[in-house]
Amino acid sequence: MAAMLEVKDLEVAYGKILAVKKISFSVEQGQVVSLIGTNGAGKTTTLKTISGLLRPTGGEVWFQGERIDHVAAHDIVTRGLAHSPEGRRIFPRLSVEENLLLGAFSRRDPAGVRSDLKAAYDLFPILGERRKQPAGTFSGGEQQMLAMGRAMMSRPKLLMLDEPSMGLSPIMMKRIMTTVSELQRQGTTILLVEQNAQAALKRADYGYVLEVGKVVLSGTGRDLLVNDSVRKAYLGED
Amino acid sequence: MTDIDTPVDDISEAPVAKPGKPIAWPLGLAGVALVIVGSFLSWSYDGQILNDLSINFYPNGLQILAIILALLSLVLLLVEKGPLVKLGSWLDATLGLRALGVGLVLYMVLALVAISVESDGLINVNPGGYVTLVGGLLIAVSAWMLPLHQLRDMSEARMPAWFDILSIAVLMAALLFTAAYALAQTEAWPLILCLVFVGAAATCLFRCGVMTFVSHAGQRHRKVLTLAAFAAAFLFPFTQNGDDTNMSIAGSVLVFSATAMGLNIVVGLAGLLDLGYIAFLGSGAYVAATLSTSAFATIDWKPPFLIVVLVGACVAATLGLIIGSPTLRVSGDYLAIVTLGFGEIFRFSMFNLDGNNGPNLTNGPNGIPGIPDLVLFGFDFGTDHTVAGVELTRNANYYFLLLILVGFVILTFSRLNNSRIGRGWVAIREDEKAAEAMGVNVFGLKLLAFAIGAFLAGMAGTVKAHQDGAVSPDQYIFLESAFLLAAIVLGGMGTIVGVLLGATILKVLPEKLRFFLEYRLLLFGLLLVLMMRFRPEGLVASRRRKLEFHEEDEALAVAVEEERLIAVEEAK
């Protein structure tokens, strides 16, 4: 069976600078796959290209058997690929509920949206309690919950999370990571981009290590966690 | 309507009751008495000015306005202490009284200045004028000695439905009569005094909380409010008694309003800065002109007017799409520059398509004069009609047609605003990149805003061509686009009431105050600078816009969300 998401020789450039240099990886249905790497490794660029916010200069992206590297961003969301962008990018002046509803913008089934709204509030009760409050007044962790809830509102088959743990307290990070596993159990495939390799690999079925725009290493999450060079470079061990 | 301003902050920020001085109340009462007595006396020796203020015990309109302000003060004083004290926990008498006091003093000072300017100095002022001024001063002084109150939340005030509806009707009737009275003034000074009166009365009603109540009543009975507003606008020509000049002004206000509301979709909802919007009005007008039966019309096809409206609107929308599709990919400053250029290109094209440089479509700088009046379903817009004993002139006929147009534009605006598309526009305005990641078709929605805005302006243009009877390129200069934007910014971006108000102010003032015309750029510029400093959200702020300028206000944010939920309920 073909992979749900297949990235082949992807190349993305900002002007003349190649940010992503022919990387290839794939995500199987039901998996949690992690992309880890340092700043500037090209992780965010890769996600933005997959979701159609950037255009590749070379290579292909296949999602559920269709090529999507030149499909418009809003069409990609409709096809079931949601992107929770780096830095959360919630709408700070809009209320929690409006943020969530915007996540469901691509959908046209009001009844389904309403029930998913309830599902989002079940997943993150704090959002339900403060549904009328403007999102900008939330703490970082709450904003991350909102960003994830919002991305889930499009009822994605594949959810791409860009650094969900950025700037969070360890407790909040754990909460977010538990949710990732929870979503996986509910049947969502997840592509997780993280700098925090430990947390990401612990939950990943498979992982790829990116360095300056290239995949340098890949393997199951467990293998990578015990890999010497990964331990040295990302887990701060000698 | 949702966007009537409620000065919640004024009330909630008031410090907890500081005891007032005991003398304040009788002082205020004395002030009221003085104003009323003074207004019954003669203000001026010269009977020629301000519509004759020289006769004792025969107050003219301007003196009656002063009496009305005094009576409002009296009511508020009785709320403070006396038979109406029950209302005291809802209405802020002190703040209202302050507005009235200051307004009365300003009113009288201006009246005395007017008297001395128009005739030979202060010598012409009769005692009545001074008495009234002193009365106004007393009211102002007493208002500042009265204590400030902690009030109950007006949104909890529940009255029987008939009372809500009555208050809406009274508000609309007051608006209608004030508008009729102000427009009946042909000279500058009385009009200025009228405006001061309106300003004082409106500020008072907002400050003391009456308007908060009315706006809540309006939210409870939205349809009644809409209907009442439309009825008041519909009745306006009947107050003019065949005065064609005022109806012509009213007609141009409506054209301007319809266009401004169209631009409001582009600027207020989608957040795109369009500096050449007048070109869309122009293209509609030119389509109507060239397809009309004018002797100078250049196209031989003479379809019925309803077709012309559609053609004009579609031509404008097509122009919108043509100009939008390459430029909407850029944003902000670039878009502003491109649209500015487009406006000028349109004007020069109309100027040059005269047969010497290309086909003769527009008669060049001469434009197309002699556009005949409309005849719709056998109704001739060019002749006077008498309805219920009131003569309705040519311009009144167009006024009714334009009223329907404005109604259509407002309906389009509010439906869009509360729709899924409207939500997409909000997202684009807030964070374009995030909106794109959410699956909002950013480019498509921007283009849609552009096309809808252009479509509506094109519609307005087709009527305008017939109403004006002529089109020429110099009607569509950049300044007009700037004024449209100014109306939106002044009134309140993204609101309906605000933009209508802004458009009315910007159109009526230069028409009625001729001296104003020469300095209008200076004065409007000044006004806009002051607005940006003190009230960046515009005269009537949509709550959401207000939030953009006062982000820390959580209570406001919750109110915004509640309002949205009500709107969503209604939409179902």
Written description of the protein model:
The complex is a heterodimer of chains A (238) and B (572). Chain A is α/β, with parallel strands linked by helices and 238 residues long. Chain A is globular. Chain A has one domain (5-234): Rossmann fold, CATH 3.40.50.300. Chain A has helices spanning 43-50, 73-78, 96-103, 110-123, 125-129, 140-152, 170-185, 197-203, 221-226, 228-234; strands at 5-14, 17-27, 32-37, 58-63, 66-67, 81-84, 158-162, 189-194, 206-211, 214-220. Chain B is mainly α and 572 residues long. Helices cover 67% and strands 2% of the residues of chain B. Chain B has helices spanning 8-12, 24-40, 61-80, 93-118, 127-145, 161-184, 188-208, 210-220, 222-235, 244-269, 278-290, 305-327, 333-352, 394-417, 420-430, 432-437, 442-468, 478-491, 497-512, 514-534, 543-549, 554-571; strands at 375-376, 379-380, 385-387, 390-392. Chain B is globular and about 80 Å long. Residues 1-16 of chain B have low confidence and may be disordered. Classes of the chains: A alpha/beta (238), B mainly alpha (572). The interface between A and B is medium-sized, with 33 and 29 residues.
Number of strands of chain B: 4
Summed over residues and divided by their number, the pLDDT of chain A gives a mean of: 89
- What is the N-to-C succession of helices and strands of chain A? EEEHEEHEHHHHEHEHEEHH
- Beta-strand portion of chain A reads 25-35%
Which percent bin holds the helix content of chain B? 55-70%
CATH-level-4 superfamily name of chain A: P-loop containing nucleotide triphosphate hydrolases
- Rg of chain B, Cα atoms, Å: 26 Å
Main beta-sheet annotation of chain A: 6 strands, mixed
Beta-strand residue fraction of chain B = under 5%
> How many domains comprise the coordinates of chain B?
2
Q: Compute the number of structural domains of chain A.
A: 1
CATH class of chain A: Alpha Beta
Outline of chain B, from the CA principal axes?
globular
> Oligomer, anyone?
heterodimer
Strand order of the largest sheet of chain A: 6-7-8-3-9-10
